[in-house]
Amino acid sequence: MKRTTKRSLPALALLAALLSSGLLGTPAQAALGGSVDSVAADSSALRGQLRSTGFVDYDMHQISSGELVVNEYANRAGQVFAITWHGPLPPNLQQLLGTYFPRFQSAAAAAHRANPGIHRMFRLEQSDLIIRQTGHLRAFGGIAYLPALVPSDVSIDQLQ
Amino acid sequence: MKQVHRLFGLLGLVVTLALGGCGGGGNSASSAPTQNSFAGGGNNVVAMTVEPGPASSGNQPFNQPYVSVKFCVPGGSCATISGILVDTGSYGLRVMASVLEQAGVDLPAMPDPVVPGNTIQECLPFADGYAWGKVSSATVSIGGETSSSAVPVQVINDASSPSPAVPPNCSSTNADTALNNVNALGANGILGIGVLVSDCGSYCAQTPAAPSDIYYSCPPSGGSTCTLVSQPVADQVSNPVAYFPTDNNGVILQLPPISSSGAPTASGYLVFGIGTESNNGLANAKVLTTSQGGNFTTTFNGSTLGSSFIDSGSNALFFNDSSLALCGSSAPENEFFCPPSTTKLSATNQGENGTTNPADFSIANLNDISGTSYAIDDTGGPAPSIPGFGPYFDWGLPFFYGRTIYFAIENASAGGTTGPYYAY
Predict the structure, then answer these.
(1) How far apart, in whole angstroms, are the C-alpha atoms of residue A121 and residue A108?
(2) Cα–Cα distance for residue pair B383/B386, rounded to 1 Å
(3) CB–CB of B211/B172 below 8 Å?
(4) How close, in Å, is residue A144 to chain B by CA atoms?
(5) Which of A112, B45, B326, B350 has an alpha carbon within 20 to 30 A of B210's alpha carbon?
(6) Share of chain B above pLDDT 90, in %
(7) Torsion sign across C-alpha atoms B22, B27, B30, B36
């Protein structure tokens, strides 16, 4: 994976300015599919440390909250096309999935009704939305992405 | 779409299963010469049976091993609960509130030491759901072993309107599939006896409480009035084996070999302690030490899978192999493999200590297995690829048939090696 030299991130810089000036009263929800400014809202909700890294085709915004790590990926249009997470527990997926959260809920409920018992993994794989989560106690991980927004040169397996 | 006879047959036909689930045949484990035989019993040996379990017909998962556990109010009344799922993929003992109640036992909730009148509650996450309920202290007995002090356990609140109510962040952190009843869970409770002790560790003990914590302090109303709290590791729901006065350094699970066409039930043993009694030595099992998180490395099909684990709570072997056909394209058929004919495969497991141990297995077409078989050896399913989490092989219950597998608890010396480790 090619990494560019450190790029400045105008969107985040602007966001930081807006936040510090108090112009953004209510943090945006819905990072997935939302604009890159929702990353700061997620970071705030997770009380995490936000660190951004530029790559050729996207920017990675890493939110670290102790052992829990959430990576949000924004394409060149400033849209969050993928989110990954790993840590001892799952993050708040309502916060991270936003408008896509109800689809996660209903798919998980349906899968569970069809196959009761404890499950270490979950998959929702539809043409416009992929959500996977796996794990057992103290070791969870997951990914959610929107295939239509993934930059054409990017393979999902490259993400961290 | 091809009908998945196995899956729907299982859900629809179990009423006809009239074989009894008690494993009364007692023909126990076929012990290879180099393995321990537990048929003679012992203070540290309890029967463990793969059977339909306590859920109602249509909700009974296959490949789930159960034991009975005795819960006592410290210094007070006791109840022995059967149908407790033995789960080496989690840590801590959990039981359904309604089942305890029917047995006449009410475990008191752990009080919040900071806010008078509040109790400590837990939102337990699964990959596809959650279980909500109070943290309680119980004296726990399994077979002849009794905890020397009260064990923090979770009493899963399976009332239709739980009190305290489920906080919004609990149901939203996880999918909206409460595993808050026997039929959803397929068990009366979970006995989490993997290689770690507490169910969250330092992550849930940090101050202030982590935003994705699972421990709450709740007034009786609960819901949005609950607040996340930092829960000291010693007060977290924990592996009860670590609380036994002896035989407390780990467990052994042994299941007999079964037919490749499956079996209605399978009867084996859960044994406490490793190298602590005349019956629980390592014999010639190879020790594979794990990471602090309980993972080791599996090499399969040329891939190195560094986040692998052995999990009696998984009802199949879960791994990636794109050459194996799925049973269908949507859940639950896409959760299992259905190759046209049984496929033999092999992998190698390696501990952090460098020790390797081969693991051969087969994957059959799940549709070819009788719906009345609750013990199934040759079944597997795909493991979702998660960037960042790391590739893994989930060695679920099929791995246990015909094996004696040792699970040594973190920081405990067991047979000359300090846990956490797996050995087989």
Answers:
(1) 10
(2) 9
(3) no
(4) 9
(5) A112
(6) 80
(7) positive
Q: Check residue B60 and report its DSSP letter.
A: -
Q: Which amino acid makes up residue B151? A: V
Do B198 and B91 contact (CB within 8 A), yes or no? yes
Cα separation of the two ends of chain A = 11
* Facing B388 at nearest CB: one of A71, A121, A138: A71
Q: Which residues of B touch A46 (CB under 8 A)?
A: 211-212
Residue B310 corresponds to which amino acid?
I
Q: Chain A neighbours among B 53-72 (CB < 8 Å)? A: 55, 59-61, 64
Distance from CA of B128 to the nearest CA of A (A): 6
How large is the angle between the packed helices A10-21 and A38-45, nearest 10 degrees? 60
Q: How far is CA A120 from CA B101, B108, B127, B129, B147, in A?
A: 29, 30, 5, 10, 29
The C-alpha of B40 sits at a distance from chain A's nearest C-alpha, in angstroms, of: 32
Look up residue B23 and give its two tokens.
């494993």
Closest to B408 measured CA to CA, from B420, B416, B396, B424: B420
Question: Which residues from chain B sit within 8 angstroms of residue A97, using beta carbons?
Answer: none
Mean residue pLDDT across chain A: 83
Is the backbone peptide bond immediately before B164 cis, with ω within 30 degrees of 0?
yes
Cβ–Cβ < 8 Å for B81, B188: yes
* Res B308 pLDDT > 70: yes
The pLDDT, as a whole number, for residue B10 is: 46
Indicate the pLDDT class of residue B173, thresholds 50, 70 and 90. low
Do B369 and B262 contact (CB within 8 A), yes or no?
Answer: yes
Largest Cα–Cα distance in chain B?
62
Across the beta sheet with A121-126, the strand order is A49-54, A58-65, A68-75, A80-87, A139-145, A129-136, A121-126
pTM attached to this predicted model: 0.89
Q: How many CA atoms lie within 13 A of B197 on its CB side?
A: 19
Bridge partners of B308, per DSSP, are B296
CA distance B94 to A79: 42
pLDDT score, position B4: 42
Which amino acid would we find at residue B319? F
From chain A, pick out residues whose CB is under 8 angstroms from the CB of B59: 116
Output the pLDDT for position A28. 46
- Beta bridge partners, B13, equal none
Separation between Cα atoms, residue B359 and residue B308, nearest integer Å: 13
- Cβ-Cβ contacts under 8 Å for B177 (sequence gap 6 or more): A105, A108, A109, A112, B128, B129, B130, B184
Q: Is A121 within 8 Å of B127 when comparing Cβ atoms? A: yes
Distance CA B384, CA B392 (A): 9
Q: Where are the beta strands (DSSP E) in B59-128?
A: 65-72, 78-87, 91-96, 119-126
Q: What is the number of other CB atoms lying within 10 angstroms of the CB of residue A23?
A: 9
**Which of A112, A137, A139 has the CB atom closest to B128's CB atom?**
A112
